[in-house]
Structures are given as structure tokens and as C-alpha cells.
Specification:
The chain contains six helices and two strands. Strands 1-2 form a two-stranded antiparallel sheet. Helix 2 packs across helix 3 and helix 5 runs antiparallel to helix 6. It is found in: Membrane.
Length: about 170
């Protein structure tokens, strides 16, 4: 029981929304498009200081679409996988940035990725997410779409880590 009453908030265009309704939407299982947008919006608002270190403004917009799709398809754990990919990938991109810039091998814009990079990194995972959402292949394939999603981000992260650490500590690029 909450220590305060749940009151309805009235928006003329949307009708009345109660706090308990918002909480129910956030906790929707399985996720809906509405719950995916709401959860992703809340996380992006809280995480915006981290997002701007690794993404351009248009990259953030593209990542928002990816996050919403991911939450809708795979829920919290799928979203956390993508978030960890972003955090680790951004961190290794920043390793010895000044040295990489001096050698001319650094990512453009001090490692801040744009929409092309977000799409390129997530394309295979997005295909798996859409196939999962729309139940392509039925229950027999749902595990395959999850595996493909996880494998796509793990593969992309291993590529990012190896190339960025290689540029920072390797003898050749």
C-alpha cells in the first residue's frame, strides 16, 4: 500500500490517467508498445548524461527507436543487453582517445556515434526483434529469435572492443 492516495491526472486530449495505471503500464508483461515507449522514455530521461557521451543527438533518436523495439520484443533483459553493449562499447571507444586522434584512427566526433552507426550495429538484432514480436515461425522459433538477438549484440560488442583496444594498445591498426 502506498503512503499516499493515487489520484487521477487529467489531460484533455488523453482523458484521465492514474498513477496506478502508469505503474501497471510500466510493469506490463508481456511488454506492449505503450509500455515499451514509456519505460524507454523514463530510462532515456534518467540516462541522458550517459547517452550524450556516446551518441550524437540524431544517434540518441535512433537509439530511442532501438530501445523501444528491444523492450517490446524482449523486455527488461533484452533492453539491459543493449544498454550494456552501449556502455561497454562507449567506454572502450574512449580508451586512449587522444592517442587514437593523434594517429588518425579515432572514431569521428570523439567517439560519439550517429544514426548510421546505431542502425549498423543493431540491424541483425532488430530483424530478430521484429520476427519475435510478430511470432514468425511460432513458438518453435521464439528461442531462435532470442538467440539471434543476443548473438548479434555479443558479436558486435566483441568487434568494437577488439578494434578499439587494438587501436589503443596494438602496434598496427
Amino acid at each position: 500500500m502506498l503512503p499516499f492516495p493515487l489520484k487521477a491526472i487529467s489531460f484533455p486530449e488523453l482523458g484521465s490517467i492514474s498513477l496506478s495505471g502508469v505503474i501497471d503500464l510500466i510493469q506490463s508483461s508481456p511488454p506492449t508498445w505503450e509500455s515499451a515507449v514509456l519505460n524507454n522514455l523514463l530510462i532515456f530521461l534518467v540516462g541522458s548524461p550517459i547517452l550524450v557521451t556516446g551518441l550524437s543527438l540524431s544517434g540518441i533518436g535512433t537509439a530511442f527507436l532501438l530501445g523501444t523495439l528491444t523492450w517490446r520484443a524482449f523486455g527488461t533483459f533484452g533492453f539491459l543487453l543493449v544498454a550494456m553493449y552501449f556502455i561497454i562499447g562507449t567506454a572502450v571507444t574512449k580508451v586512449k582517445m587522444a592517442q587514437k586522434e593523434a594517429q588518425g584512427v579515432a572514431e569521428k566526433w570523439r567517439g560519439r556515434r550517429g544514426p548510421g552507426s546505431v542502425i549498423g550495429s543493431s540491424a541483425a538484432g532488430c530483424v530478430c526483434a521484429f520476427l519475435s514480436i510478430y511470432g514468425v515461425g511460432g513458438a518453435a522459433f521464439s528461442g531462435l529469435w532470442q538467440l539471434g538477438f543476443v548473438a548479434s549484440f555479443c558479436t558486435k560488442l566483441s568487434d568494437t572492443v577488439s578494434s578499439e583496444i587494438g587501436k589503443a594498445y596494438g602496434k598496427t591498426t
